[in-house]
Amino acid sequence: MRLLHTSDWHLGRSFHRVSLLDAQAAFLDHLVAVAREREVDAVLVAGDIYDRAIPPLRAVELFDAALHRLAAAGVPTVMISGNHDSARRLGVGAGLIERAGVHLRTDPAGAGTPVLLADAHGPVALYGLPYLEPALVRESFGVRKASHAAVLGAAMDRVRADLATRPHGTRSVVLAHAFVAGGLPSESERDITVGGVQSVPAGVFDGVDYAALGHLHGCQTVGERVRYSGSPLAYSFSEVHHRKTMWLVDLGPAGEIAAERIDCPVPRPLARISGRLDELLADPALARHEDAWVEATLTDPVRPAEPMARLARRFPHTLSLLFAPERAADDPARSYAQRLRDRDDRQIAEDFVAHVRGAGPDAPERATLAEAFETVRIAAAEREAAG
Questions:
Q1: What are phi and psi of 246, to 5 degrees?
Q2: Where is the Nuclease SbcCD subunit D C-terminal domain (predicted)?
Q3: Whether residue 357 has pLDDT greater than 90
Q4: Residues 6+ apart with CB under 8 A from 48
Q5: Looking at the 3D structure of the chain, how many domains does it have?
Q6: Does 356 have pLDDT greater than 70?
Q7: Which contiguous run of DSSP H or E holds residue 87?
Q8: What is the pTM of this model?
């Protein structure tokens, strides 16, 4: 069986205030064309179809058109909701849409109920595990600890239990939206940390032939049978070196995996350049970036006049301008952004306590801060789940 694995479309998202809707439409054209030309048996979309719970109208129209075209091509499609999606909104009409061969899996309660397809070698069970917010599904899954590993493990227990009732030789595929240990994140994924831990072990997917993952935006192989497709477009300059692709996966008669990367259309290349402004404007080696979306970091000791306007004359698609003056590491004038780089919200709060009080928080105070941040995160997740 031939599967086309994609995820993290983030329909409606912009790139530094530049609309990507035309680029997303071009990607969906490409996806449908690949599904037809490569004779795909099923398309798998592993979450984050939209960029936010209430997407703009044109994003909804893109999604609707893609579903109609896949259904018209006779290509079954299995989709799950991600942490950016409103599962309840995305799942509206799922029962009716399923009649057209589009299987939306947005309800955690259906984790152990597969979409059943078949090829010349027998049945294939495809299980869709929507993004599982631990605090919201812990009780329904009967787990004591509200952690990603616990709730995803419980969902996979349901998958394995159902699979055990299927005819011998039934092959299995799981779609999941999670941060699996060993995966490499970028700056454009929304944090899903729970209690300071966001990753789950890859071993949670043991027992299935292929795990089609979403959430991380870089295409990567966690294990032969556990892969991220990555996002089809770059959504941050941290993805400058990403090769944006989908996985074309051939599932053999005994569950063998053969995977090929299918390149996605690139609307415009990305470039990160750094140096003094005059050097950036004169360096002939940077000519290759003149048509790229550019993030420029200026290292001039003193901020130059009209830097964005001057950069735009050579790099007309400059979208981000940063300043990192050449200073010693202990210089008190170091930028605030530099001091906060690679520090999460809790660490920043602890640093603030140390700054105003002269001493950092003790263990009980750190626990209180962690609990406060977790409460805010869960409240936000509950509001999004409620629509």
A1: -115, 160
A2: 267-355
A3: no
A4: 7, 8, 9, 10, 82, 83, 84, 85, 177, 214, 215, 231
A5: 2
A6: no
A7: helix 87-90
A8: 0.85
